[in-house]
Amino acid sequence: MPYHCVAYGCGKTAEDGVTLFKFPKDPEEFRKWEKQVQRTRALWVATPNSHLCSEHFGKEYFEPRPPTGL
């Protein structure tokens, strides 16, 4: 079973052309992500296998990749 985005109303998988990010291992960061999702999914509880897709992060959170094939 492929991983899916846990954001309310999303549920996208890698097959939808998004990148999935696993919740952080750091407990403080994990809780920040969980609280953010709970803003729209009040009773939801994150697990170590919870993921969010790239559509829920601003472009400022991604580092540009150097060009390939040079």
TrEMBL record:
Domain of life the protein comes from: Eukaryota
Major localisation: nucleus
GO cellular component: nucleoplasm
UniProt similarity note: Belongs to the THAP1 family.
Subcellular location: Nucleus, Nucleoplasm
GO MF annotations, alphabetized: DNA-binding transcription factor activity; RNA polymerase II cis-regulatory region sequence-specific DNA binding; zinc ion binding
Keyword field: Cell cycle, Coiled coil, DNA-binding, Metal-binding, Nucleus, Transcription, Transcription regulation, Zinc, Zinc-finger
A GO biological process held by the record: endothelial cell proliferation
Protein name: THAP domain-containing protein 1
InterPro entries (UniProt xref): THAP1/10 (IPR026516), THAP_Znf (IPR006612), THAP_Znf_sf (IPR038441)
Functional description taken from the UniProt entry: DNA-binding transcription regulator that regulates endothelial cell proliferation and G1/S cell-cycle progression. Specifically binds the 5'-[AT]NTNN[GT]GGCA[AGT]-3' core DNA sequence and acts by modulating expression of pRB-E2F cell-cycle target genes.
Xref: Pfam families: THAP
Residue span, THAP-type domain: 1-70
